[in-house]
Specification:
Elements: E1 2-6, H1 9-21, E2 27-31, E3 37-39, E4 42-44, H2 46-55, H3 73-80, H4 91-105, H5 110-120, E5 126-129, E6 136-141, E7 144-147, H6 148-154, E8 161-167, H7 176-183, E9 188-191, H8 196-204, H9 209-215, E10 220-223, E11 226-227, E12 230-231, H10 236-242, H11 249-256, E13 262-266, E14 277-281, H12 288-304
Parallel strand pairs: 1-2, 1-9, 2-5, 9-10, 10-13, 13-14
Antiparallel strand pairs: 3-4, 6-7, 6-8, 11-12
Helix pairs in contact: 1-2, 1-12
Length: 305
């Protein structure tokens, strides 16, 4: 089995590629939940939902988030009533948040709900949250500490990011099925091309998880989300700069340190200073063929190690 650690858009693209080159029973996707938050009285799980919609073929390629063929009557009515509009929820998307919140309030775990949803959407492989316990990413800025979605969506990542913390992570427990998969000697562990600060490091910060990954003995291969010093999407490159680090593939590899055995990066990018074995590939995923091609190269890197 290959275990893939993933955030939202970039990670979901590679996860889709991997789903085309591996049988569903040979792939396990672990989703970041640090982006989760409570809004309109609902529990919103952006990265889980992006993975789910992408793997089900229901994602919105124009927006990069949410569902395809969406309608917006809820948001229009909310705005007419004077409600907050900064985080947009489409009508189809809203149904999932309502159902998830209802089931959580009834005592079900996020893992059980996520697994049921992926089955109902016809997804064969498993998607699991990193933990069933709430972890909330917060950004320290020149305006003080802000919840991630407040900083990223409402304030458009404009306040200068100075530090990141994961509220509640000290009490969080790794998802039990993930620990079982790690003990079962997986074929490899893939860190998807997601923002290391806010998508992957929340997963690795769950107590005991980094140690369990090392103890598994599986080769760990990360894919760089930085190409020629720029992030394909999102605030990755800007966050590196704000934290005083030049954005580069090498800077991404350094974030993961001795956890890595291999590192996949774009052809032509500078590999100087990267400690793990480097594998060059076309990492920009414009279409399904690109996603599948990169997935094949990532699996080949895992097997080469």
């Amino acid at each position: 089995m290959i275990i893939a650690l993933s955030g939202g858009i970039g990670g979901a693209k590679l996860a889709l590629g991997l789903s085309h080159v591996l049988p569903p029973e040979e792939l396990l996707i672990i989703a970041n939940t640090g982006d989760d938050f409570e809004h309109y009285g609902l529990t919103i799980c952006p990265d889980i939902d992006t993975l789910t919609y992408t793997l089900a073929g229901l994602d919105n390629p124009h927006l990069g988030w949410g569902r395809a063929d969406e309608s917006w009557a809820f948001m229009q009515t909310l705005a007419a009533l004077g409600g907050p509009e900064w985080f947009r929820l489409g009508d189809r998307d809203l149904a999932l948040h309502v159902l998830r919140s209802h089931r959580l309030h009834a005592g079900e775990t996020l893992s059980v709900i996520t697994d049921d949803v992926r089955k109902r959407f016809g997804i064969g492989l498993r998607i699991l949250p990193m933990s069933d316990d709430p972890v909330r990413t917060q950004i320290n800025t020149d305006k003080g500490w802000l919840d991630f979605q407040d900083w990223f969506v409402r304030q458009r990542a404009e306040p200068l990011a100075q530090a990141v913390r994961f509220a509640g992570v000290e009490q969080a427990r790794p998802q039990p099925a993930l620990l079982d998969a790690l003990r079962a000697k997986p074929r490899g562990i893939v860190i998807c091309p997601s923002n290391p600060f806010i998508s992957i490091e929340p997963i690795l910060a769950v107590p005991g998880l980094r140690e369990a990954i090392k103890a598994s003995g599986a080769p760990v291969v990360a894919v760089s989300p930085i190409i020629a010093g720029q992030a394909v999407k999102g605030p990755t490159a800007r966050m590196f700069e704000a934290l005083g680090v030049t954005p580069s593939a090498a800077a991404v590899a350094a974030r993961y340190g001795d956890l890595l055995h291999g590192f996949v990066m774009e052809h032509g990018d500078d590999a100087a200073g990267i400690a793990p074995r480097v594998f060059y590939a076309t990492t920009l995923m414009r279409d399904l063929a690109d996603k599948i091609n990169l997935a094949r190269q990532v699996v080949a890197a895992v097997d080469a190690l």
